[in-house]
Amino acid sequence: MAQIIDDLPESELRFHFLSGRPCLDLVATVGERWRRSFERLRSPADLGRWSVEAGLLGRPPRVSAADLAAARGLREAICRVALDEGGSDDVEVINGWAERPDLPTRLAPDGRGLRAREEGTARRLLATVARDAVDLFTGPHADRIRECAADDCALIFVDTSRPGRRRWCSMRGCGNRAKTSAYRRRNADPKESR
Description:
The chain is mostly helical and about 190 residues long. It has six helices and six strands. It has helices at about 20-25, 45-55, 65-80, 90-100, 120-140, 170-185, and strands spanning about 30, 40, 105, 115, 145, 155-160. Strands 1-2 form a two-stranded antiparallel sheet. A two-stranded antiparallel ribbon has the order 3-4. A hairpin with a 6-residue loop joins strand 1 and strand 2 (about 40). Helix 3 packs across helix 4, helix 3 (about 65-80) runs parallel beside helix 5 and helix 4 (about 90-100) packs across helix 5 (about 120-140). The mean pLDDT is about 90.
């Protein structure tokens, strides 16, 4: 379970949207799952802020403490299923939310893509995220769910690359660091490596 760490810098509390799916972006609201496992959804207002930054709503919904607890429970169920560690209880949590009314979708003004609803409830937000998870886990990219290969990252993402061999959540971040490190190792002075 994620812990609330009081002395984190503001940069650590920023949300990440690199996964390619809203349900996995919700999973990324836990930072450093491999080490400190810290909570980014620290208050109900944080879930409202996430909904806007994720592009699901135009304005933050009212979020209660119960809504926040439900979002965290849904998030962990999605995470375990995405990593093939989930059980029937996790599937039930996801299905339970997916059966509820979700946020209605709207076409963007240019007719291409989706537009966030201006208003919605926290419960409909969670139903939308759960339906996205069901769609992902049963759709054409179900076998393309990956965990970042970087030692210091646990972000889960959908590999939509043509060959299906993407290893990092982001080439600009983890991928660049890994390639730079590999380059330095290959080109290290032989005298220094002794």
